[in-house]
Design brief:
By secondary structure, this protein is of the alpha/beta class. The chain is 42% helix and 14% strand. Helix 2 packs across helix 10 and helix 3 packs across helix 7. It binds pyridoxal-5'-phosphate (PLP).
Length: 391
């Protein structure tokens, strides 16, 4: 079976990082590296991108409405709520899958103190939209570049356009440190407030525990072992399809945590290969695009020419999502089911038809760099076969 994702690190990265992380200034080294990459004044290294967003909103301290796309990871509105703000949704454009600018304009009413621009699946948003809000000095522009490390718009890294940005190094992202998330901030005063908020942060998780998790994950997602893991998992938990989960309203323990030295090191050792990771992901995305452009029942997202995505997965839109998913499972391809409902659904709000439609039709093809060309071609052939039977 072809797994839906695979962590970016190699066994060698995992072991090498253990030796290095015990003594060195791992977090400072990572900060220096990322500061240079993003050409930003302040970088904070935390245990997750969620924690980074939480720290930012606490530091900003202007409770009010925070606008965000209605089709997104549900953790984003949850964090907004944890930080004492109220999430407010904007429908997406079904063609590009990112926030529609007409909708954003319409939603920019009173009481909005921040906007979260999400580069979903690593696909950059239309940055001209940011320019349209920039004159609103009373609104903080936050880029959720959690899945978009290395993605560019007009040759400039996303995450460097807004007032602040978050990037994730969780297991499914471009580069994984097993745990990890960063906050990028330019303004000195805001950065000082973040520093203050982080004084109350919990200490990082244990280096050894994260090391063990990285080994376990690397092994579980090996193509030979993965089918067994998947069968075992399925027998324990019923496969979740469209079930909507209520948003969490209370902040979980140890939510605001600093990054472990181990994860920082694991990220640093892979950053040297970032260009290779991105090239490989873009090559796989291009393979899918070229091969599937004539498959009528499968729609591909429209990517504006200014965008160079980071592709943590390659989203496709299929009318009968569930039967297509099981068809591909039958052929040994485990597709990403993300996301199975929109944020609007989890908050029981109506009026976000495109976001709801995306949740009902979107599946992600794997783009991790260790996916072989042969497997990518196999996936394309399987989809083409589905298409010929559906016309
Ligand atoms: C993964 C992801 C997050 C959360 O990142 P964590 O590091 O797991 O907290 C937030 N937003 C988007 C769009 C994501 O893809």
């Amino acid at each position: 079976m072809i797994p839906r994702y695979a962590p970016s690190y190699t066994y060698s990265d995992v072991f090498r990082s253990l030796g290095k992380s015990i003594h060195n200034r791992a977090n400072d080294d990572l900060k220096t590296h990322l500061k240079a990459l993003y050409k930003v004044n302040h970088v904070f290294v935390l245990s997750s991108a969620k924690a980074a967003l939480y720290a930012l909103l606490k530091a900003y301290n202007r409770p009010g409405k925070v606008l965000m796309p209605a089709y997104n990871s549900r953790v984003v509105p949850e964090v907004v709520h944890f930080a004492g703000y109220s999430p407010a949704f904007v429908d997406i454009d079904y063609q590009t899958l990112n926030m529609s600018h007409e909708m954003l304009d319409a939603a920019l009413g009173t009481g909005v103190t921040a906007v979260v621009i999400v580069h979903l699946f690593g696909i950059p948003c239309n940055m001209e939209d940011i320019e349209r809000i920039r004159h609103r000095k009373d609104i903080l522009i936050i880029e959720d570049a959690a899945p978009a490390l290395g993605a560019e718009y007009d040759g400039r890294l996303v995450g460097s356009f807004g007032d602040a940005a978050i990037v994730s190094f969780q297991a499914t992202k471009v580069i994984s440190g097993e745990t990890g998330g960063i906050l990028l901030v330019n303004d000195d005063e805001l950065a000082q407030k973040v520093e203050h908020v982080l004084q109350a942060a919990d200490p990082p998780g244990s280096n050894w525990l994260i090391f063990a998790k990285a080994i376990a994950r690397k092994t579980a997602f090996h193509p030979w072992l993965y089918p067994t893991i998947k069968i075992g998992y399925r027998s324990l938990h019923k496969e979740q399809l469209f079930e909507v989960v209520e948003p969490r309203t209370t902040i979980p323990p140890k939510f605001l945590r600093l990054c472990s030295k181990y994860s920082s090191t694991l990220i640093s050792v892979q950053l040297d290969r970032l260009d290779w990771h991105l090239q490989r992901r873009r090559y796989l995305a291009q393979t899918y695009r070229e091969s599937l452009s004539d498959c009528v029942p499968v729609r591909l997202p429209q990517i504006p020419s200014q965008c160079a995505p980071a592709w943590i997965q390659f989203p496709i839109l299929v009318e009968d999502k569930e039967s297509f998913y099981w068809y591909m499972q039958g052929l040994g391809v485990d597709l990403n089911w993300t996301f199975r409902y929109s944020c609007a659904d989890s908050y029981r709000l109506n009026g976000f038809p495109n976001a709801q439609k995306a949740a009902k039709t979107l599946l992600g093809l794997p783009t991790y760099p260790s996916l072989t060309d042969k497997n990518a071609r196999y996936i394309c052939d399987a989809i083409k076969k589905y298409c010929t039977t559906r016309i």
